[in-house]
Design the sequence.
């Protein structure tokens, strides 16, 4: 099964992110991420075995995520898949530390795939028709987090559906 670790927005923030997604969609077209799929990927694990998945579920249920606040104050894009995202203007040191700590542990589980660059972001649009418009208001949101989710990504005809398999305790 295909898994990733992510921050899942609390309901109010999810709503604000959904509003940004609507504004972005009006400008850029493409496929708007459904509200229930909005997340911030900390580590994409790819395909893992059932045995590994069970170990990961146990680990996440005991994992402590240091509480943090991530400021979302910039739009960004990944040109090739036409992804438009909202994220931070500058790298967030606490999220960087969390991501490195997670990968240290994941490599202990025998998982590979640590990326060379980590750009925390929330994907709002996929296959955007253009990425060069500048008509959107600058975002200004704060994501207060203290836990993460282990999420299964299930492919279906119109994209992926995400199912949380485990959630770390609130810290
Ligand atoms: O956080 P976002 O939505 O940008 O793009 C996929 C999504 O990221 C990414 O993992 C998240 C959940 O699917 N993803 C999918 N395949 C990937 C891969 N092979 C990948 N990230 C890195 N390598």
Sequence:
């Amino acid at each position: 099964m295909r898994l990733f670790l992510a921050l899942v927005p609390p309901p109010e923030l999810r709503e604000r992110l959904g509003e940004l997604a609507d504004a972005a969609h009006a400008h850029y077209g493409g496929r708007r991420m459904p509200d229930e799929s909005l997340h911030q990927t900390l580590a994409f694990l790819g395909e893992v075995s059932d045995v590994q998945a069970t170990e990961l579920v146990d680990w996440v249920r005991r994992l402590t995520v240091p509480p943090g606040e991530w400021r979302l104050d910039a739009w960004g894009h990944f040109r090739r898949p036409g992804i438009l995202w909202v994220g931070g203007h500058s790298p967030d040191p606490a999220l960087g530390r969390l991501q490195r700590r997670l990968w240290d542990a994941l490599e202990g589980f025998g998982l590979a795939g640590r990326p060379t660059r980590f750009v925390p972001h929330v994907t709002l649009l996929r296959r955007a028709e253009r990425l060069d418009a500048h008509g959107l208001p600058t975002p200004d949101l704060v994501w207060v987090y203290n836990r993460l989710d282990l999420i299964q990504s299930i492919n279906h005809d119109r994209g992926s559906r995400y199912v949380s398999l485990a959630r770390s305790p609130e810290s």
In short: The domain at 2-167 is CATH 3.90.1140.10 (Cyclic Phosphodiesterase; Chain: A,). Residues 61 and 168 are 5 Å apart (CA to CA).
